[in-house]
Amino acid sequence: MKTTLFLLAAATIAQASPVPELDLVPRQQKALCELYAYWSGNGYELLNNLWGKDSATSGSQCTYLDGTANGGIQWSTTWTWKGGENNVKSYPYVGRQVARGKTIASIQKMPTSVTWQYSTENIRANVAYDVFTSADPNGPNNIGDYELMVWLARLGNVYPIGQKVATVTIAGHTWDLWTGYNGKMRVYSFIPPSGTIKSFTADIKDFFKHLEQNYQYPASTQNLIIFQIGSEAFTGGPATFKCTQFTADVIIHLEPHAQCPLLPCPRISGGRCCECRKSHVPDDARNRYCEYRMAPETQVERGRAELVVGAECCGAGSQLSSAGGARRTLAGQLGWSILFWVLS
Fold it and tell me: How many domains does the chain have?
């Protein structure tokens, strides 16, 4: 249905914990007007993907990096295309950079949020998420075994590949599910039956779960290749697509690490001894750390297996977690909670 430039960008994986927003410096504000003009930063990439421009009799397109907001990307694209009305001319996109070698089954969540608008709807175009997966973890990012599309707009009577096979409800919205083939690649497209969705927050993993449960999608052998959103332009314009906010993450489910060592327990406030129990917290695609928390002696004596962390086991200035426990780092607080970095 489209092609994307084969780029081996430095891949990053989103952490489960929040990451502070990094502001783009002024030199990174970009105008991308050449074929496949590219920018990357802060875990995202932006491409002026004019892959089908040769099917137009005339036209042009520029894509702009507008800035950041709330840890995500703001961008826009302006285009005019004539001729070949049933051919896609372009799919400029912003994508979350993802680490290779992560199967869909290993991914716990793919949370995303987007807010967008078009300057006119008198055009032939769509607005859609695009996700490729492949059995080859190192395959090119312009093709895959499967393509998942989530359309947020269908303007000017354009249609997805294949035919409609079902109507489903996912992420609080109703979708017509279409499926067909783009060459050898199986394409699943979720389309709003009517109207547009201009503000959208969802977990894209929920769409994969539906395909796995109902269409034998092989999540355990399919690797995530690309995770993008953009607008496929057919004909019309001048038109400006503006994405005022886009965020996306890929959160990996990590099994407990076998190399977390046992530790003796320190004596703490009030002379009471607390047992250190280890939990396993994902940090990124390469590392996990072992987090040691402390449970009150009374709970240990009762033989309760669950982790119970009380303020009485914490020193002054402890930060209580949402579970009611304390968490300390190595920085100056070695006796309270210890983090061990271990290679996956």
Answer: 2
